[in-house]
Amino acid sequence: MAATKNTRNVQTEVDASFLYRRLYEKETDAGMAAVFKQMSEIEQRHAEAMFRKYNPGTVVSLPAPSGRAKVIDLVGRIFGYDYVLGTLMDTEKSISNAVLVHKKNKNISIEGNETNHVKILRSLLEQDKTYGANVARFEKRHRSVGGNALRAAVLGGNDGLVSNFSLVMGIAGASATQQSVLLAGIAGLLAGALSMALGEWISVKSSQELYENQMDIEMEELETNPEDEQHELALIYMAKGVAEPQAKQMAAEALADKNKAHQILIKEELGISPEELKGSAVEAAVFSFVLFSIGAIIPVIPFFFVSGMKAVMFSVGLSVLGLFFIGSAITLFTNRNVWFSGLRQVAFGLLAAAITFGIGRLIGVSLAG
If we measure between CA atoms, which residue out of 107, 285, 269 comes closest to residue 203? Predict the structure, then answer.
């Protein structure tokens, strides 16, 4: 077990080095390319150090990038390397959190170097004259693309497939006609997709309205009580390690321009970025509708062409393939074994479908009797 875990840890570092190198090769901005190049070199050294730790006295022989890393690279080639950046940063956060939890559980002191590589990128960018512009660009790209979008796609498709697969099997289990199964399947697809779309629209819209309300309150406070707002801003700077005299000076300079001060306060005090208000609720709703529908149509397809148990078996077969694909896609974020994750997803999906099929069969027999 330990050897497997050690091998996986080395592989994770090798994959990160490979993906950072691909980002470096594709990046057109010289400053950002330099950052990615250094990140790739850091991960390479991590991999070599881990290999020596796990294999003392042997020549360092690192594995090639894994299939998972190559798939992520392929996604980058198709959809753009911003997706790769987002996935990498999400992975870095997960790794750093795991390190902190491990040290806490083992009562090992926190040294401060356990934080994720997003902060390393910040420190590297500080060496560049274009630091401010690059950081803003980096953060904007990371918020808008990458792991979150891919994860939403995978989970949306999974919700549609599992829920409609279970529904279709339940109706089929009741010995319903081909037309009944089709009607239920299409109805389940539309109902689920519309529910997902509405939920996503409400989520995005309510978040935007909440942020806008908080920003309005902050502007009112700034206009009615600028002294306290200046004091709060100085305290925020001091909490970040800025000396008190300098913090007070920075706060006073910021308050000299009301609009500029408002932007700083909503970011520093409320933690709100203007970029978070630019997302389209309609776009999010359409995205959710489409993703759910793609998954939900899979178990219904056979019933357009055949009926009876033949349609049920074809539906199960297509759904198994879809479930395995989704389980495999999840490993892009979890770094787990593809076969384990894929087969686990298949097992859960089949279990849900078997339960509804059994209930449908019982109800069908009861009604027939």
Answer: 285
User: What is the DSSP annotation of 193-259?
Assistant: HHHHHHHHHHHHHHHHHHHHHHHHHHHHHHHH-HHHHHHHHHHHHHHTT--HHHHHHHHHHHHTSHH
The Cα–Cα gap between 298 and 24 comes to 39
Cβ neighbours for 7, distance < 8 A, ≥ 6 positions apart = 54, 63
Please check whether residue 42 lies inside any domain of the structure.
yes
Q: What is the DSSP string of 328-358?
A: HHHHHHH---HHHHHHHHHHHHHHHHHHHHH
Asked whether residue 135 is assigned to any structural domain, the reply reads yes
Looking at residue 108, the DSSP 8-state letter turns out to be: P
> How confident is the model over 11-64, as pLDDT tens digits?
888 888 898 899 889 888 787 788 788 888 888 888 888 888 888 888 888 999
* Boundaries of domain holding 140: 2-144
In a domain, 91, yes or no: yes
Q: Which two tokens stand for residue 217?
A: 């309150």
Q: pTM of the full predicted structure?
A: 0.56
pLDDT digits over 222-250, tens only? 666 777 677 777 777 776 677 888 888 88
* Token reading at 180: 């009944």
CA 105 – CA 188 distance, rounded (Å): 45
Q: How many structural domains are present in the chain?
A: 1
Whether residue 130 is contained in a domain is answered as: yes
Taking only Cα atoms into account, the Rg of the chain, rounded to an integer number of angstroms, comes to 26
Contact in structure between 329 and 144 (CB atoms under 8 Å)? no
Question: Which residues of the chain carry a pLDDT beneath 50?
Answer: 1-3, 112-116, 121-147, 365, 367-369
